[in-house]
Amino acid sequence: NRRFLLVRRPQGTPEESDFALEASDIPVPPPGGLVIRNRFASLDPAQRGWMDDAESYMPPIPLGDPVRATTVGIVHASDNPDFAVGQWVMGLNALEDYSVAMPGGFTMAIDPDAVASPSNYLSALGAVGLTGYFGLLEVAKPRAGETLLVSGAAGAVGSAVGQIGKIKGCRVVGIAGGPAKCRRLLEDYGFDAAIDYKGKDHEALVAAIAEAAPDGVNMVFENVGGPVMEAEMFNLAHHARIVLCGLISEYNAPEKVGLRNLWQVLARRATIHGFLIADYAERFAEGGAQMAQWLAEGKLRMDEDVQEGLENAYPAFMRLFTGANTGKLVLKIS
Ligand code: NDP
């Protein structure tokens, strides 16, 4: 049983020596529990936050423990009548070959025959796709004809948000890094306009957003923070709604700088709403059913960037921060 352990808290950008791959015995199920053979693990920006010893919505990963991750896999051994050996499940586990799970936590059965790949339960049908779904529909509450601005737009959450915005009749503007990603926004995800933030200073970014959204932005779906968000603030329509979903530009920063142009929120009477997908856990079946229908109808596309092997967990994880990932980043464990 190989396990990808956190052995030192990263200072800024994670280094390979912050982690260690160790082998141990395959666990046996505790009373009432089960052992899962992990097949795919989700690599998420949130894991970077869980590596810090900081107050958050979840406790930090203890040093010496495997890195916490959502996984899909097959029940390897069970002491629970609700979970049979061989059954597919997903849950909040860790980057390891075998995980011990106690039902009553997040473990739930999944149907691999209903999807193209079981990894889809980590992308379109998982927390990431549903972040786009509930974050946009329940928090921003889009109305047809409104302008939606999405940062981190070519990523897993961002691409879902933009496409759902189009389904709801919005004008959708995306911000992403590099010409290739901007092309994908227009050609693969149907955005109305795409802005490459790389190589643009504050004035150029403010101007590019103004050109793409001449009447201002009614909704911002924020995945990035930092200079990108600071430029967005100068393009808010009055009473704009800002869904604060993520701030990836800050996750590796030793000092969290915060937003410099907050006064624009006041000037434009805007609202910033913090969003956490965990608050919608009881509605996953409902959101998943709608996402599955849009996928089947060809209205929604979710790309996956599948990297291979637990031994590659570190370079795979770092793709999130260099922007190398093309779609939902997934690690194939076996
Ligand atoms: P993505 O697939 O979007 O991958 C991360 C992307 O972030 C990279 O590809 C890169 O794209 C961009 N990025 C990295 N560093 C920077 C930077 N310094 N400045 C600007 N962009 C950067 O990941 P996810 O879709 O999984 O996550 C997107 C966001 O959503 C994250 O902030 C995450 O924390 C958040 N999230 C929040 C949830 C919630 O419940 N609140 C749930 C799930 C995700 P590029 O090449 O365009 O720079």
* Main structural class: alpha/beta
> Which ligands appear in the coordinates?
NADPH dihydro-nicotinamide-adenine-dinucleotide phosphate
- What letter string, H or E per element, gives the SSE order? EEEHEEEEHEHEHEHEHEHEHEHE
The CATH class of the largest domain is Alpha Beta
Give the helices and strands, then pairings:
Layout: E1 2-6, E2 19-23, E3 34-42, H1 46-50, E4 68-78, E5 88-94, E6 98-101, E7 108-109, H2 127-140, E8 147-151, H3 156-167, E9 171-176, H4 179-187, E10 193-196, H5 202-212, E11 217-222, H6 226-232, E12 236-244, H7 263-267, E13 271-274, H8 284-296, E14 304-308, H9 313-322, E15 328-332
Parallel strand pairs: 8-9, 8-11, 9-10, 11-12, 12-13, 14-15
Antiparallel strand pairs: 1-2, 3-4, 3-6, 3-15, 4-5, 5-7
Bound molecules: NADPH dihydro-nicotinamide-adenine-dinucleotide phosphate.
